[in-house]
Structure formats: C-alpha cells, structure tokens
UniProtKB/TrEMBL annotation:
Signal peptide: none annotated. The lineage of its organism: Bacteria, Pseudomonadati, Pseudomonadota, Alphaproteobacteria, Rhodospirillales. This is Lysylphosphatidylglycerol synthase domain-containing protein. The chain crosses the membrane at residues 21-38, 58-79, 91-114, 134-156, 168-192, 212-233, 245-273, 293-313, 325-351, 371-390, 397-416, 422-438, 458-479, 499-521. Residues 523-545 are annotated as: Disordered. InterPro entries: L-PG_synthase/AglD, PG_lysyltransferase. Residues 524-534 have a biased composition (Basic and acidic residues). It is found in: Cell membrane. It is a multi-pass membrane protein. Keywords: Cell membrane, Membrane, Transferase, Transmembrane, Transmembrane helix.
Amino acid sequence: MAHTESPPTWTQRLLRYGTGVLILALLAGALVILNRWLEQYSVADIRQALNRITGVQLLAASAAAAVSYWLLTLYDLLALRHLRRPLPYRWVAFTAFTSYAFSHSLGFASIIGATVRYRLYAPHGLGGVEVAQVTLFVVTTFMLGLATVMPVVMLIDPTALKALHVPPGSAFLLGLAALVILVAYAVGGFWLRRPLRVFGHAIAFPRPSIAVRQLLLGLCDLSLAALVLYLCLPPSDAVSYADVLVAFGLALVAGIISHVPGGLGVFDAIVLVSLTPAMPGNDVMAGLLVFRLIYYLAPLVIAGLMFGGVEAFQARRRIGGLSRGISAAISPAVPLVLAACIFITGAFLLFSRATPEETLPAPFDATALPLVEMSHFTGSVAGVLLILLAHAVQRRLHAAWVLSLVLLATGCASALLKGGDWPEAIVPGLIFLALLPARKEFHRRGNILRNPLTPSWFIATGVALASAFWLGLFSYKHIAFSDELWWHFTLHGDASRFLRASVAVGVIALGAALVHLVSAASRDPQEREREEKPPGPLTAARRTD
C-alpha cells in the first residue's frame, strides 16, 4: 500500500504561516525606522544626492561587484575541493553565480541556493547529500567571513564601533578574542580528523589549508561587497570605509536573522541608523538605492538573460550533442530563474510607479493626460500581477508563461507611454526576451488559481507590496492628502495616481489572497504533493531530448 502524507495540522499551518507573519512584522518595524530617520528628507533630496554620485564611482562599484561575484564562485570551488569532487570551473562558476544572484535578491539562501545547485550539479554526479554539504560549506564560509571582518576592523581601527557606543579599548579586546577563536577554527583540522556525525551523515571538518582559505575568501568577499556600498555613497569625508564596513556587517547579520527576502528594509534601516550620525540620511538612501541596483538587480537580470540565451540556443535546430547535454542540465532550473526575474520585475514596476516623475518630455502636454493616467495605472496593475504570477511560473504552468509575456510587454509599453521612459522599459523588455524562447519549459496545463502561494512566496509577495506602499507614502508625505487630491486628474498629479493605483493593487492582492485560501482549503493533499514536486534531472533531460 502506497504511503500517503497526512494533511498538515493546525499547529503546522500556524507555524508555517506564523513565521511569515513575523517576518512581515519585522519588515514593518524596519519601515517605521526608515520613515522616522528620513522624516526631514524627501524624494527630491534623495535625487539630488543621486546626482552627486559620479560616473567614475559607478564604474568602480560595478568592477568591485564583479570581483565580489567572482570570489563567490570560489566558494563553491573550495567546497567541491573539500568534498574531493572536482568539477570544471566554468560549470561551477555558472552554478554559483546563478544561485547567488537569486538568493541575494529573494533571500532564503539555504533553500534557493540548494535548489539551484542540485538542479545544476546533479547531472554531474552529485547527490542530494553532497549538494547539501556544499550549501552548508558555502554558508559556513560566508559566516566565517562575516565573523572575520569585525575583529579585523576592531584591531585596525577600534573607533569604527563608535556607532555602537563601544569604547576603543573594549573593541580592541573583543577583536583580539574573536581572532583567537578564528585561529582555533583554522587549526582545528589537525585534531578533528574524523568526520563528525550529523543526523546520521558524516561531515568532515575542513583541513587547515581549506579552513584558512575559507577565512581569507570570506574576508575578501565581504570587504569587496562593503566597498561596493562605500563607492555608491555620494562623496564625503565624514564617513570612512571602516565605518561602512562595520555598518555593512551589522546590517547583513540583521538581514539574515530577519529572513526578510534580500534583507529589504531591515538591511537598509541598520545602515541608515549606523551612518546618519556622520552623513545626511538622503545621501545614505541614495547610496543604498544604487547599491541594490548594482549588487542585486543587475546580477539577477544577467542570470535571467544567461538562462534565456541557453533556451534560445536550445531552440535552434542545429544543436550538437554537447549543447544538448548542457541544455538538458540547465533546463530544470530555468523556471526558477525566470520566476525570480519576473517577481523582481513586478516589484520594479510597482516601485517606479510609487515615486514621482521629475519632468515629462515636451510633447506630453495637457492633451496627453489620459495617456499618462492609463500608463501609470496599467503599469501598477501589471507589476502586482507579475508578482502574483511568479510562483506559477516556477511550477511551469503554460498559462503563467503566456500571461507573463503579456504583462511584461504591457509594463514595457506603459513605461514608454508614461513619457518615453526608456530606461524603465529596459528591465521588463530584457526579461521578456529571456522568457520568450523558454516555451518548452512551460508544458504543464492547469488552472493558475488552483496553485496557492507557498510560505516563501507569501513572504516575498508581502515584502514587495508593503515596501512599494511605504515608498509611495514616503514619496508623497509632504503632500496633504484629501478627497480633492484623490480625484484630481492633472499631468503632474503623481500623488493622486499613486493613490488610485494603490487601491487597485490592494484589491487585486486581496482578491488573490481569498482565491488562494479557498483553493488551498479545497485541494486534496495528494494532488498538492504531486503538483508541487519538482521534476527530477533525469525527467527534465528526457523531455529536452
């Protein structure tokens, strides 16, 4: 008799979704902190700060981000060497870059990173346990780097912890004690030569040579990531690189603890509180915005285009045996990549509609008011629908693929009709080109409404919608909202357009929540397990042949 899983109890459901509610509550607290510390600033102030960031800074920050992501590929390479399972570096680099691009933007690094790694490493002979060990090694290396940065900073510059009100003498002693612990970890491999047993699995303690490389690799990577943030800040002599490095480390720890996707809000609040005593809040927020574009959004778009390029190459009839093998291995991870890109694009459209426009081109006069109103409203609706569709894209539903293409085209057109905003139209346009050739990956026929959100997608959706709404309130907080403003249609009435679009977004989100709750309550547990179970690598390989 086949074993069937019993439906989840109320306690399990409460724990599953209660965690999501707690994460959203932490995000709300972070947004309250941001709003309080930015109370005296406006969007115009942040834009002025953005204008002070030079092109040389942007190029230097982009180069530092590229080197940082290259170092991240060495995480996986070192993990495979520790397991004595070497793989070609080009494949390791592709896998590592993709997994980090997703986990940085969506959070849940241990889940998303492990999923992508399994999809791409399994065809090369790595089993589930080995992929889990790689993920554990990578997470450990990251945490070691985080633990190494602070002691080094405290030893070099004990005054860098002034934001935490830690005396220089105490900071030096804390750094020295932490450094002793890290040295003990590095040489621990001389004595712990037998594998440790964890849940019945043998996990080998790193050899001293591997442990030292872990410490150096993590230190260099986090130092470079903090350098990206430092280079993104407007020029100032009041904040040093050591100050940014300490703030960056503390913000990363807070973001990891909160489990908010991408540390959105939480990371920004910690950096803002740490740096504003020496730097204006609008300068800090401007630097954070540029940092997220360079270190989060750009790699995610590049990863999506890479997968889209593979799918386009696969669609050509003149494909050799090697390229078929590569495509068969990559194909199972394509829906996850594209789902992440679609989700970020939807959030991007919502964020862009939540901020006022500086000016409109000359041809857009009062006669173009209906066009501007329609483009703003349709762009917001397309954004929230893309966010809600992302989980269905991950499940390979054909209807979700078709609707996503339509919504991406709508978002691109709305940006152009809003006033010829071609920079905004680039993001949905590129994701459209990446999604278009992936037709064969979305083979499942089914009702989108019968696929309720999982807890992780529920959290990510709530974070995106709450952040977009807060951004709109912050952008127009100096405007006195009234009934006249709500129905006031003018060419530059961005506040009223935001209010009308927010109502539409809220109604759509509420309707989707009700539909998914009813669908989840009426579905059979076996049907849910069968639909949510991802296809294995061998199944995907047979389908692509």
